[in-house]
Specification:
Keywords: Hydrolase, Kinase, Transferase
Oligomer: single chain
CATH class of the largest domain: Mainly Alpha
Pfam families: ACT_4, HD_4, RelA_SpoT, TGS
Family: Belongs to the RelA/SpoT family.
Pathway: Purine metabolism
Structural class: alpha+beta
GO biological process, one term: guanosine tetraphosphate metabolic process
Number of strands: 21
Distance between the termini: 14 Å
Helix content: 40-55%
Number of helices: 27
Number of domains: 5
Length: 737
């Protein structure tokens, strides 16, 4: 980022801070008041600096009594006196920082213990106050939280320190998610005031926030923090795009909002139906608007695109009653409907999502949820209160009592999630214990945090309990084997997907029924068979990749001590997947290395390719942009130069081709007949369920020569009803905020 862009970003952050301060207490003024000392504390009167904090806390927790208020007062007095004389880089009294962090948490509904620890979160690190003093004054629980946050404050966010740092961070968080809640609020206030930092430091902090802390906020379900962090990071790392998007949002705000008309119509519909509901217009934040433009490939938005309708009701049943009225009185956009009440997200999020068009053709997205769901949607684990207090003591309804379900444990299938140990966090803690080194864990962490969509898979196995599992979108049967069986996933020998035998590399879809076929003798075998090295190409989850990598590292010679026979070093070696009697297909100059074409991305000449050395010294050839190749590069594997053979390209190649068509009878028969007429064999085929009369067929085929691919695609496109034929594409990198 150049100096001019950095200055612009800093100015944007400062303007954003002024805008935010208009709806918050004036912490700068109160910080100066705090410096007056104990005069403001006389006769039991609360210090002016926390009057607003107490008011917000009692609004969220009406049951908070004198004891809780007194605890917060004592915590403030200790924090103010210990930080007295310290200032922030902005010149403000330092006490303004813990006050701001605590106010953020209070607005999200944090309970008294969390707020007390938040007020004191910098005292042990930055003042002469000791942890023993905190323990004596406020109890073991507050002391534990302050200690956890103190350890996180010692984090050096330099690139070399990141892997081990975040391993320790998750260990600290694992025992009590409130530690991470305080850390996230701390980071949000620091991001709000980042304009006083040097541009290069702004960028470094923003990137760590983007890569780790924002995904962690998503995992903890704290959407309110996540949204603001995203916008602040966007302003620093992409100032021009941010400025353009903000200008478009402000221009739209000056015009009549068509979403208000739809909202009024919806209120009338629900009133006539006798459903008590609150209908709000929920504006999109800056990053959300920018993502919508990228998704649609446009530079301008209009209509109802700048917001969504939020409908809040009292009971779960009312959510479905609202949905019925929406889909009866408006035209539903069926492809946009999602039920996160029956199947909550991994972070306990619950809502109904839909989109409808009114009589004028205006399309509005609608979210429907109860008041409790809304609290959890905004504040995530913070809204759950003290996870160690009884439900009666808190006066709140737990997700378990409300019948919520969510992932937990290695199998992602616990129907009663422990709010202190969300399933994804328990898995990360298991990975950090299993990962052989910090770098492996760091790669696994970032891979997992990058996953923002999930699928639900149903398992049914003889001798094993059936259940429901959640996996990241794009997960394979190999991932499922390790999610269900842990290290015993090595013994998976086959799989049935929706009743049919399928390759272990099959990518699972939402709602698939899975039956894993396990080798029953593996556990008692003196030298059990391990995973095939090719499984690394199929595995996407850290649990699977760490288990496979660790086994291969411990068994470098392969099962039974066998080693692949090396080819003569004097000549390039042909790809293993090519026909045995043909000339080499892909070659490398690496002496003695066998070469094979990766099955995950099925490269075909003249694709741009790169190679990676895998187990046994074999070089696997991947298309550029292949996710499996990208993961190996991120894990530190050096790329190996590979090239297609000069002077010819005879040999067998596999390619995956997708055909999109209008659904009709005999389509499958016509497509397979055309493929066979080209003299091409079908290795596997899959047909997705039709959606809105459209269907997609996926074929993996064996090509006699790369030139046959273009002829095949032309022939497939000539089939009546087929409107597009294309190769499976590797994942494309998108803009990151």
């Amino acid at each position: 980022m150049n100096a001019e862009s950095a200055d612009n970003a800093a100015d944007i952050v400062r303007r954003g801070l002024r805008r935010i301060d208009m709806r918050r207490i004036d912490l700068r003024r109160l910080g100066r008041v705090a410096l007056l000392g104990s005069n403001g504390h006389s006769r039991g009167r609360l210090p002016g600096a926390i009057e607003h904090l107490i008011k917000v806390h009692r609004t969220r927790h009406p049951e908070a009594g004198r004891e809780e208020v007194e605890t917060l007062r004592r915590a403030y007095v200790l924090a103010e006196s210990s930080h007295r004389g310290q200032t922030r880089k902005s010149g403000e009294p330092y006490i303004t920082h813990p006050l701001a962090v605590t106010l953020i948490l209070a607005e999200l509904g944090a309970e008294t213990t969390t707020l007390t620890a938040s007020l004191l979160h910098d005292t042990v690190e930055d003042t002469e106050v000791t942890l023993d003093q905190v323990r004596l004054g406020f109890g073991e629980e507050v002391s534990y939280l302050v200690d956890g946050v103190t350890k996180l404050e010692k984090v050096d966010y330099g690139a070399a320190a990141e892997p081990e740092t975040f391993r320790k961070m998750l260990v600290a968080t694992g025992d009590d998610v409130r530690v991470m809640s305080i850390k996230l609020a701390d980071r949000l206030h620091n991001m709000r005031t980042l304009g006083v930092m040097r541009p290069e430091k702004q960028a470094r902090i923003a990137k760590v926030t983007r890569d780790v802390l924002i995904p962690l906020a998503e995992r903890l379900g704290v959407q309110a923090l996540k949204r603001e962090l995203e916008d602040l990071v966007f302003a620093i790392l992409h100032p021009e795009e941010h400025a353009g998007t903000r200008a478009m949002i402000e221009a739209a705000a000056a015009r009549p909002d068509p979403l208000a008309v739809v909202a009024d119509d919806l209120r009338g519909v629900l009133r006539d139906a006798g459903i008590a509901a609150e209908v709000r217009i929920r504006p999109r934040h800056t990053v959300s608007v920018h993502r919508l433009m990228l998704k649609r490939g446009v530079t301008e938005l209009g209509g109802c695109d700048f917001g969504r309708l939020l409908v809040i009701v009292d009971e779960d049943a009312d959510c479905y009653a609202v949905l019925g009225e929406l889909h009866t009185c408006f035209t539903p956009v069926i492809a946009e409907f999602k039920d996160f009440i029956a199947a909550p997200k991994f972070n306990l999020y619950q809502s109904l999502h839909t989109a409808v068009a009114d009589r004028h053709g205006r399309i509005a997205e609608v979210l429907v949820r109860t008041k409790r769901m809304h609290r959890v949607a905004e504040a995530g684990v913070i809204a759950l209160g003290n996870p160690y207090a009884s439900e009666a003591a808190q006066g709140t309804e737990t997700p378990q009592a409300a019948g919520a379900t969510g992932p937990a444990g290695d199998g992602w299938a616990d129907p009663d999630p422990d709010p202190t140990q969300p399933g994804w966090l328990a898995r990360l803690l298991e990975w950090q214990r299993a990962a052989p080194d910090p770098d492996t864990f760091w790669t696994a962490l970032r891979d997992d945090l990058a996953q923002d969509r999930e699928i639900t898979v149903f398992t049914s196995q003889d001798g094993d309990a059936s259940g429901t599992f959640r996996l990241p979108a794009g997960a394979s049967c190999v991932d499922a084997a390790y999610a269900v069986h842990g290290e015993a996933g090595h013994a998976c020998v086959g799989v049935r997907v929706n009743g049919r035998l399928a390759p272990l590399g099959t990518r699972l879809r939402d709602g698939d029924a899975l039956q894993l076929l396990m080798d029953e003798t593996a556990a008692s075998a003196p030298e059990p068979e391990g995973p095939d090295p090719e499984w690394l190409e199929y595995a996407t989850t850290p649990a699977a990749r760490i288990a496979i990598t660790r086994w291969l590292a411990l068994h470098p010679a392969g099962p039974g001590g066998e080693r692949p026979v090396a080819a003569p070093a004097a000549r390039p070696v042909p790809a293993v997947d090519s026909a045995p009697d043909t000339e080499p297909v892909a070659v490398t100059d690496l002496p003695g290395a066998a070469v094979r074409l990766a099955r995950c991305c099925t490269p075909v000449p003249p694709d741009h390719v790169t190679g990676f050395v895998i187990r046994g010294g074999t070089v696997a050839v991947h298309r550029e942009g292949c996710p499996a190749g990208s993961r190996m590069a991120a894990a530190g594997r050096a790329a190996v130069s590979v090239r297609w053979r000069d002077g010819g390209s005879a040999g067998n190649f596999r390619a995956t081709v997708l055909a999109e068509a209008l659904s009709r009878p005999r389509l499958l028969a016509d497509l397979t007949e055309v493929i066979a007429a080209q003299g091409i064999g079908i290795v596997s085929a899959a047909v997705e369920p039709p959606q809105e009369h459209r269907v997609r067929h996926t074929y993996t085929v064996e090509l006699p020569a790369p030139e046959a691919l273009a002829d095949l695609m032309r022939a497939m496109k000539s089939v009546p009803g087929v409107y597009d034929v294309y190769r499976a594409r590797p994942a494309v990198a998108t803009l990151r905020y």
